[in-house]
Amino acid sequence: MAGEGVTASKGRARAGSAGGLKVERVWTTEGVHPYDEVTWERRDVVMTNWRDGSINFEQRGVEYPDFWSVNAANIVTTKYFRGAVGTPEREWSLKQLIDRVVKTYRAAGEQHGYFASPADAEIFEHELTWMLLHQVFSFNSPVWFNVGTSSPQQVSACFILSVDDSMDSILDWYKEEGLIFKGGSGSGVNLSRIRSSRELLSSGGTASGPVSFMRGADASAGTIKSGGATRRAAKMVILDVDHPDVEEFIETKAREEDKIRALRDAGFDMDLGGNDIVSVQYQNANNSVRVSDEFMRAVEEGGTFDLRGRLDGAVIDTIDAKGLFRKIAKAAWECADPGLQYDDTINDWHTTPETGRITASNPCSEYMHLDNSSCNLASLNLMKFLKADGGFEVEKFVRSVEFVITAMDISICFADFPTEKIGETTRAYRQLGIGYANLGALLMASGLPYDSEAGRSVAATITSLMNGVAYRRSAELAGVVGAYDGYARNAEGHKRVMRKHAAANDEIRPTGLVATEIAREATKQWQTGNKIGEKNGWRNSQASVLAPTGTIGLMMDCDTTGIEPDLALVKFKKLVGGGSMQIVNQTVPRALRSLGYPEEQVEAIVEFISEHGHVVDAPGLKPEHYPVFDCAMGERSIAPMGHVRMMAAVQPFISGAISKTVNMPESATIEDVEKIYFEGWKLGLKALAIYRDNCKVGQPLSAAKSNKATEAAPAEVEKAVEKVVEYRPVRKRLPKKRPSSTVSFSVGGAEGYLTASSYPDDGLGEVFLKMSKQGSTLAGVMDAFSVAISIGLQYGVPLETYVSKFTNMRFEPAGMTDDPDVRMAASVMDYIFRRLALDFLPYERRAELGIFTAQERAAQLRAEAEAEAAGVDLAGMAASAPVSAPVDATTTAPEPAAAPQVIESATQVGSSTELLEAVLGKAADAPLCFTCGTKMRPAGSCYVCEGCGSTSGCS
């Protein structure tokens, strides 16, 4: 097994006699600065637009270690480097970024008495630097954005607000939410204190109800988004199951989804971010119903349930519990909302019950604590602790958690907050959220199926160890700098929850040597930590969550995010020189070796996966090992209950909750959703959300679903110019029978058909365009436009004249298309004439217009890459990062070589999700990135773009 367990007093920073922490080295070498241990290189980061090749970001000569992937360097440069590009103030080296953050933490730690001596502070600084440099962990994005800059020192990514039953409070909610959205973060709120639409106002009228006030908040979020944000405002809205308006709340988004469908069919731009989507309400929030044990027992027993007024608690209505539960499941089946939050479970694990109940969560449901509070996050890269022999670096993991928790707590000492109420609560309760990424990769590399007792055993023991060390360190910090301000009032409640965590740890029945060793150390940590806590109290009311780890997961070159399994067995990879390729996940050969396969079999299996994208019938692979390679999507995807069981395995060892959406196949029934939601309650989860494939009609998810091939016209056609002997054009009519082709297309979610008819031997002569419903205004205008273009062509107007006039014309609908040759279009007109040019103009004329097929662009990129690489064999290189993005960056130095399991060039896809779509032949349910236009990949209950690091709402 991976090393000996550590005791409470050995191998860790500890409280010194001078009152501060004595810090010992773990990763660093005395007398050698972490920066001097690695090889640095200069790179050029150039991000380009997929559609027209224009540059939207450029910074040359940035400095990174040679083992950082192209993608990680690109994301950090574009997202986290501060200062205007092109000015002396602009950061240009990873050293500057890490120093800006770490030195701020060290200075604050010294100022507030965390360290026994300056030497201890220096070791702390070097250890944090080493871990960040080597991608062992990362702080959440606000730390990288703000710490050490002239901006407010906001370090938190998660916020919870509150709203009372008064207009002043409701308007404050709008304002506070807006301030959080403006800063790029998200928040959650429970509206259950607002009286229902079935209750009276003091004036005698009827109250509006919380759903009505949700409209104003939703419009506010949408307006701030359109005012400059590059992603949706992220928010969570919660209503208790006993609220009289709960049925209206449940059905709100499902009804709006019907509206989206009707408007989209009428030709309106209902794409996510489209011009017309703003007319649809409630699209900027995740909705969750807060259910009680009483309600769930009534569902189980087939009983009734009371809905109670907010003013006096009087029963307003009595409903059938199963019927209401059915409505929840039906709405979630239709549009993925609402999710469920299990109120009694949440508050049973609440450390500060005397201060107030936990009523809400952040948008992704992992942070759950007091109203008007915040939480700063950090995540460990679990793959950094996996030993070559399959063991786990227990001691290094323990000590790394200590460093990270200490740093996170220090940050609260100097942090700024969006509102004073949030600042007061956070400083008084000091909520932290340590977590991890790469669990799925760790399990696969270890030869363990994600959906297995052995896989869940390792996950549970690692999570318990992490949380036990975090709380033990928190108890030690309480002895150095004091317990959190609210501890005295909540001491008994806090100690009770610590005993619950320890008891849950004792119930783990580890499977295998690795899990056994980790469980043994976790038990020591809980016993020691609770003993210290009995004496000192704890510095933090909360220690851990499992967050999506979207952008920071890419920064750490993680294969998988948060608690998620791997997305697929093949991925999209960016190369030196700006090229790209598809590669087989590097965890696959490692897993095969862990399972005992000889090298020649490993190579054969990997080659099979490269061709087929899955392991079924791979040569020499035992069927009993197939589950090791099950992924979130693909030929063998993990069953929904497999995800739920994994969440249940780790939930007892998380202070907060888990950001994760359980994906269900399109064929899933309402009864299946009911079962998932019911089992989530039985298994002790705090929150659960589902997503049924293709249930959303308001997102651009169906582009690849039809998988219809676009029939191209002949590659070269002679120029059709009517020669005339008069001073007026002469119309050349098409014969009664003429060749034609029809192309179905989608631009920004608006679908249509283009039929192009040509002369038998002389080029394009007629165009018909069909969009929207027959008889609608848009359909009539398109018919008239088609006739006008067709007559012009028949009178001799060259096609290239139309192409030059109509390409780049901008109006809605616009955005991503389902055509691999024209990935993005500025308008329907822009798409149509680019498609016609590709089908009817020869290469030379198209080149003059800058219009190329995907294959032609690929050939150009390969030529450019070969020229820039100056003899470097790009096809034989696969850098250490597992996933990447569109062909949008270059670098001046090669990445370290890895096993070259390379599939043919993936020039027609821009992300791993799009690659998976190509392999499966159907669309993946994921939104498009607002920044670069490629399909994002799941990250917890959110999505992250592999190309630029943007997320759908979580930092």
CATH topology of the largest domain: Anaerobic Ribonucleotide-triphosphate Reductase Large Chain
Tally the helices: 27
Q: Structural class per helix/strand content?
A: alpha/beta
The main β sheet shows up as:
10 strands, mixed
Give me a quick take on this structure.
The chain is α/β, with parallel strands linked by helices and 955 residues long.
Main features:
955 residues, 3 domains, ribonucleoside-diphosphate reductase activity, thioredoxin disulfide as acceptor, disulfide bond, alpha/beta, Anaerobic Ribonucleotide-triphosphate Reductase Large Chain, three-stranded antiparallel β-sheet, RNR_2_N, RdRp_reductase_class-2, ten-stranded mixed β-sheet, disordered N terminus, 27 helices, single chain, Vitamin B12-dependent ribonucleotide reductase
Structural write-up:
The structure is a single chain. The chain is α/β, with parallel strands linked by helices and 955 residues long. It has 3 domains: 14-155 and 360-555, Anaerobic Ribonucleotide-triphosphate Reductase Large Chain (Alpha-Beta Barrel), CATH 3.20.70.20; 162-348, Anaerobic Ribonucleotide-triphosphate Reductase Large Chain (Alpha-Beta Barrel); 697-851, no CATH class. The protein is built from 27 helices and 26 strands. The strands form 8 sheets. Strands 5, 6, 7, 8, 9, 12, 13, 14, 17 and 18 form a 10-stranded mixed beta sheet that branches. The protein has a 3-stranded antiparallel beta sheet with strand order 15-16-24. It has a 3-stranded antiparallel beta sheet with strand order 19-20-21. Helix 13 crosses helix 18 and helix 14 packs antiparallel against helix 15 (487-506). The model is unreliable at 1-18, 226-231, 698-727 and 870-907 (pLDDT under 50). Residues 735-838 form the TSCPD domain. Catalyzes the reduction of ribonucleotides to deoxyribonucleotides. May function to provide a pool of deoxyribonucleotide precursors for DNA repair during oxygen limitation and/or for immediate growth after restoration of oxygen. This is Vitamin B12-dependent ribonucleotide reductase.
